[in-house]
Amino acid sequence: MKVKTILVSQPAPKTETSPYLELSEKQKVKIDFRPFIHVEGVNSKEVRTQKIDLSKFTAIILTSRNAVDHFFRIAEEMRFKVPDTMKYFCQSEAVAYYLQKYVVYRKRKIYVGTRTFSELLKLIKKHKNEKFLLPSSDKLKPLIPVELDSLGVQWKRAILYKTVVSDLSDLEDVFYDVLVFFSPSGIDSLFKNFPNFKQNNTRIAVFGNSTVKAANEAGLKCNITAPTPETPSMTMALERYIKQVNKR
What we know:
single chain, alpha/beta, 6-stranded mixed beta sheet, 9 helices, 23% strand
């Protein structure tokens, strides 16, 4: 069956140079965007119940932009002035660049990983005497605490925000040829919103092994997967599939 409509379970891109917009124009398909999950901050009272004292830490491990936003939000709520001596360990350049929203970049000690958490560990290992705080959501990759523990560093996790299922009830009678997912939480949201969802002719596109696993466990058939050596991005995987089915 041909693909004419796609729903991407993420917020709409803010830039006009988005590869999704390019894909839409090039392949003449309609692409809509809708976050299946969203983030809600935990208040300072809840953070205190986790026995988090921000003054006890000398370094912050930042794995995402959400972690940056919620660390500084909680610091403000707790009336904690983040010292200039604080060290920041950012998982990627994108996270480090985003940090500039809150700190004067050139005046701070900022260490940047290349992309994965494992690569960031090499930098953390060189600063083993620091006391690390890991701001995170209520969902954390199990590998992260294991890898930090293996280094033997002093660290503590602070749950500063939660991943929450979005209300999608208005989509109940709306059908798309392809649904695109990027996390197990997105799959979870689909079935929490629509417990009786049947895949039928809907194609499922998934990004990442953990999302593939979640989709399979939910009884879904994954028609489009990324990243692969041939299609490292989701838009490339979608384009390849559309070209195959729409030419028939």
